[in-house]
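Lecture 7 notes: from sequence to structure.

We start with a single chain of 277 residues. Read the sequence below before looking at the structure.
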Amino acid sequence: MTAAITGLQTRRIRTGGFGTSYVEAGSGARALLLLHGSGPGVSALANWNHNIPALADNFHVVAPDIVGYGDTERPRDIIYSLRVWTDHVWAFLDALGLQQVAIVGNSLGGRIALEMAHDAPERVERMVLMGSPGLGMFQTEGLTALRAYDPSPENMEALLKEYFAVDKSIITRELVERRYAASQEPGAHEAYRLMFFDPRHRGNELGVTEEQVRATRTRTLVIHGREDRVVPKEVGWTMANTLPNADLHMFAHCGHWTQIERSGHFNAVVTTFLQEA
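Now the structure, written as tokens:
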């Protein structure tokens, strides 16, 4: 998998007592942090494999498997929550010695990015919130289906085709098999169920107040698919209208996976935004 992307390296680093898996590419002077979403079988590479080569032309790209996902270790005593996920990403950046980054966050990754910009705005140069939950978010049919996923190739295919993409042709057999296999890795589905169904965990508590959004002055690009069935486009509009320094790019004929379904255009829009004066 990694060999198909020239210059990409899969690495592991210690972050606060456990090992974090991440991918790294590019050698630009500016660091770009990519944060994946929360779907079953997700990982940094699965989420960003259409984007890393293009973005690495201009940036030093790092993309971790957020704790609970991918190949990052899953501590037995961890209690999943937005705070835990955010602190994990901070620990990851500290372990790499990265004091300031631009961030592109997909869905859950976007919500983490927003929290980071609130925590330490001086460390977040710019951010892109893509299909990210925010003000006005509610439990959609797509989000319910995402959380209810029961591992099987058939269920993975149905989930991806029904809720992630408008263009069904991008949901190939290879993609389905890869995501299904990842969702079946030891401990993966157990962690996924804990995050969102065990009352001790807080994976569903991703709300944000209008006060926090208005106080976030980081230069931001909100990206949304017009046909997103997981996070409604109205959430993207509301966030762009409330964040003090935000632009909005809405992709037509596109679902929750703008970075895959419209990868070429996505890469160009993100690169232009991150490089503009």
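The chain has a mean pLDDT of 95. Keep this in mind for problem set 3.
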